[in-house]
Amino acid sequence: xxxxxxDKRFAEESLKHIDAAFLPHTPxxxxxxxxxxxxxxxxxxxxxGCGAGRHAIELALRGYRVTGIDISPWLLEVARQRAAExxxxxxxxxxxxxxxxxxxxxxxxxxGAIAICESGLGVLGGWRADLAFLQAVKKALKPxxxxxxxxxxxxxxxxxxxxxxxxxxxxxxxxxxETPPEWEGEPLQEEMRLxxxxxxxxxFEMAGFKAVQVCGCAPGHFEGxxxxxxxxxxxxxxxx
Length: 240
Ligand SMILES: C[S@@+](CC[C@H](N)C(=O)[O-])C[C@H]1O[C@@H](n2cnc3c(N)ncnc32)[C@H](O)[C@@H]1O
Description:
The chain is α/β, with parallel strands linked by helices.
């Protein structure tokens, strides 16, 4: 099963939503990212699942050297145009985060990494693939370099499960998603592995991250606040 993000029309529709709902919150999120990664301008930052580059471009505008990786060629085209309009240089690389080691120059070490808004973990083919991805991110970081990742808070999904709901296989933590009936063209689908906070922490620790923390987050509210059981997303941070 390929990623729906490889479909141009899905990426176009999704970007309309991201631009309307998330783009205006980017400066606040990047303020937090700078503090939480503990980085200063000129540091090298890896943006995993960068989409149209909203964080990558804001970081580059603040003087960081940014590499953005995404599976969607179309979103990367938009990202390149937006970076050019903003007058910044960002290295955008197309590929799946499941193949991260092949996409990076092993000789380049990063000071920090971000993966914001369901942009990798959970959509790579199960927990083993997610673990391999986290191990690859750790390897790409300098010692003590940090990763900030946001993903769905599985607790909310378990609490909302009702008898007969076959879209969430709770035994495996797998959420099935497909395009609605009104979607024109080839139907798209995806299986997403949802994590409860303790599993996410365990996965980070299994990948070798230290000082792992799980907290709450919402668009424009990146503050390291306590996670609430009904939060849609959670943020996991760890140090290489
Ligand atoms: C909800 S968007 C978030 C984009 C961006 N991080 C942001 O906050 O605006 C999720 C992104 O993850 C990317 N993505 C999904 N699966 C991926 C994969 N296997 N490898 C690389 N990127 C992926 C999508 O193309 C999309 O750009």
